[in-house]
Amino acid sequence: MTKLLHLIGAALLLFIAPALKAAAPPAFVIAGETIAPGTRTDLRIPVPEGSDPATFIPVSVIHGAKPGRVLAVVAGVHGFEFASIIAAERLAERIDPTRLAGTLVLVRVANINGFEGRSPNVNPVDRKNLNRVFPGDPQGTQTQRIADLIAREVVARSDFLMDVHSGDGAEFLDAFIGVYGGPLATDFPLALKVAQGFGFPNIVRYAMETQAQIDSGRSLNRQGVAMGKPTILIEIGQNGSREESHVAAIVAGVENALAILGMSDATPAAPAAPARLFDGTTSVAAHHAGIYHPADPRPRPLAKGELIGVIRDYTGKEVERLISPVDGYALYGITGPPVEPGDGVVTIALPVETF
Ligand SMILES: [Zn+2]
Predict the structure, then answer these.
(1) Which CATH architecture has domain 285-352?
(2) pLDDT of 293-311, one tens digit each?
(3) Which of 1, 289, 298, 352 is the most exposed place for a label (fewest CB within 10 A)?
């Protein structure tokens, strides 16, 4: 009998031991660095020299003691959008790797030269917009090399992507979350759940219907879609602001996302109020350079036919009147005064009752 019990015990151990072993995840490997479970590592992904100087991408990896999803949060794709960068710094301090299930990959500042150069929209080194050059090119200019490394080292290793922005320099913006849906996006229901968890006043669904939508001037969020990752775009703050309430809103939203994604043991918080829902946006572009005078440079409802603003040339003569082509909500736009042909002066979100 005793012998039989021993045999049963040994057999049970054979089953239990591998299960115990599986409880600790393997090390996380990124950019040649190996990160042990239950630890945080701050590293720099080196961007080698090309036709222009080398640079780096500062990343913090919080690799949980328990297995789970990999959430990538990318801040500072636009270096003048400061709330995201301060929120990433705060998240790195707040998230405890010993209690985390899964891995949080925080890109603290995607575009270091844009940040240090206080440059809206573009990287001053090559004048390219990092949010238009994905998937990047290892043989390209600095912005293209950064995009290539973020795509391969960060997006490819993630299970869920968050791309964090603000209104840029001389832009107004109402806080919103963009969620990628449609036939070419992955797991819209999960992305929507995470989006709602931010409790922002506006949610925009971007339907990915054609490959051309994903490919033309590909942004980081569309790179996430292209790689099959559920993806959201987080937008809060404007015009170089670093307001505490905006930073706190990003931090709270990411922490709630960890709960929704099963990466923390916190109970997901329900949003305080339902968001306004929009299905896509329409952008109104300028055709002239000059001095832009918006009718009202704030987020607001816009009626079809309503005046958005006028552009004057440098003699003060009006050269263009911009009129809303639709009924919708002016979600973000430029405050001016500088304007160039092709600039989107306002992006109008198209309201819907439900998705
Ligand atoms: Zn941006």
Answers:
(1) Beta Barrel (2.40)
(2) 999 999 999 999 999 999 9
(3) 1
Cα 1 to ligand 1 centroid, rounded to whole Å:
71
CATH architecture of the domain with range 25-274: 3-Layer(aba) Sandwich (3.40)
pLDDT at 316: 98
Q: Is 70 helix (H, G, I), strand (E, B) or coil?
A: strand
Please say whether the beta carbons of 224 and 180 come within 8 A: yes
State the span(s) of the chain assigned CATH 2.40.50.100. 285-352
**Start-end of CATH 3.40.630.10 domains in the chain:** 25-274
pLDDT mean across residues, the chain = 94
Residues in Cβ contact with 93 at an 8 Å cutoff, skipping those fewer than 6 apart: none
Where would I find the beta strands (DSSP E) of the chain?
28-30, 33-35, 39-47, 55-63, 66-74, 101-107, 160-165, 171-173, 176-181, 202-207, 231-235, 276-285, 290-294, 300-302, 307-312, 318-323, 328-334, 338-339, 344-352
Per the structure block, which two tokens stand in for 243?
């307001």
333, burial (CB in 10 Å: exposed 0-12, middle 13-18, buried 19+): buried
Structure tokens at 327: 């009924």
Rounded CA separation 349/332 (Å): 9
CA of 154 to the centre of ligand 1 (A): 18
Report angle CA 290, 121, 281 to the nearest 5 degrees.
80
Distance 121 CA to ligand 1 centre (A): 7
C-alpha of residue 211 to centroid of ligand 1, in Å? 22
Ligand 1 centroid–CA 78 distance in Å is 5
pTM over 0.90: yes
Centroid of ligand 1 to alpha carbon of 166 (angstroms): 6
Instruction: For residue 331, report the distance from its CA to the centre of ligand 1, in Å.
Output: 14
